[in-house]
């Protein structure tokens, strides 16, 4: 519990973080705790988990897998246990990354963050973000998730 003298000291919790509490997720029933909980703050032990993820090789292996997978594009070199990427646009009706993410969430198969990065032309682009925190994660599970992401993108493309 945190008590403050002035409610205005808590206004920082009213911030909207697109990747943490998007309104369309809330509309679908995926309730975020941002603004109602301190749950989304990073504890100091998160660094230990991120370092372990790097040591186990998840992040570099996942980066190599994304780079080698047709239809996926790495956004930037990863930092510790976070990998940001997107399904590449192909001009043939490739679904928005938000739609791929939404389908995976609605089916209960994955929970991915969706940061927006600015493209070279200045337009915002939705990306997908993997965050490695579970020390029992196996590389084959990450590979299966990436396969699921590309399969979902292909399936949604054929529906359009």
How many helices? The count is: 5
Task: Report the strand count.
Answer: 5
Q: Structural class, judged by helices and strands?
A: alpha+beta
The overall pLDDT average reads: 79
Low-pLDDT runs of 5+ residues are none
Q: Whole-number radius of gyration?
A: 17 Å
Name the overall outline.
Answer: globular
Strand content: 5-15%
Q: Mind summarizing the main beta sheet?
A: 3 strands, antiparallel
| Fraction of residues in H or I helices | 25-40%
* Sheet with most strands: strand arrangement: 1-2-5
| H-E string | HHHEEHEEEH
CA-CA gap between termini: 49 Å
Q: How would you concisely characterize the structure shown here?
A:
With 160 residues, the protein is an alpha+beta fold.
Give a written overview of the molecule.
The chain is of the alpha+beta class and 160 residues long. The chain has helices at 23-27, 45-56, 58-68, 97-106, 139-159; strands spanning 72-74, 82-87, 116-118, 124-126, 128-131. It has a three-stranded antiparallel sheet with strand order 1-2-5. Strand 1 (72-74) and strand 2 (82-87) form a beta hairpin. Helix 3 (58-68) packs parallel to helix 5 (139-159) and helix 4 crosses helix 5 (139-159). The radius of gyration is 17 Å and the shape is globular. 17% of the residues are buried. The mean pLDDT is 79.
């Amino acid at each position: 519990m945190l008590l403050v003298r002035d409610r205005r000291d808590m206004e920082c919790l009213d911030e909207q973080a697109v990747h943490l509490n998007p309104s369309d997720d809330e509309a679908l029933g995926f309730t975020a705790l941002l603004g109602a909980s301190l749950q989304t703050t990073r504890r100091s032990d998160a660094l230990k988990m991120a370092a372990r993820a790097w040591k186990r090789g998840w992040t570099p292996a996942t980066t190599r897998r994304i780079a080698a997978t047709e239809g996926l594009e790495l956004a930037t070199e990863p930092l510790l246990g976070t990998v940001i990427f997107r399904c590449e646009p192909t001009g043939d009706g490739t679904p928005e990354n938000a739609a791929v993410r939404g389908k995976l969430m609605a089916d209960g198969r994955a929970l991915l963050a969706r940061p927006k990065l600015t493209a070279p032309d200045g337009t915002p682009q939705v990306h997908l973000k993997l965050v490695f925190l579970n020390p029992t994660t196996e590389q084959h599970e990450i590979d299966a998730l990436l396969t699921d992401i590309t399969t979902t993108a292909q399936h949604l493309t054929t529906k359009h």
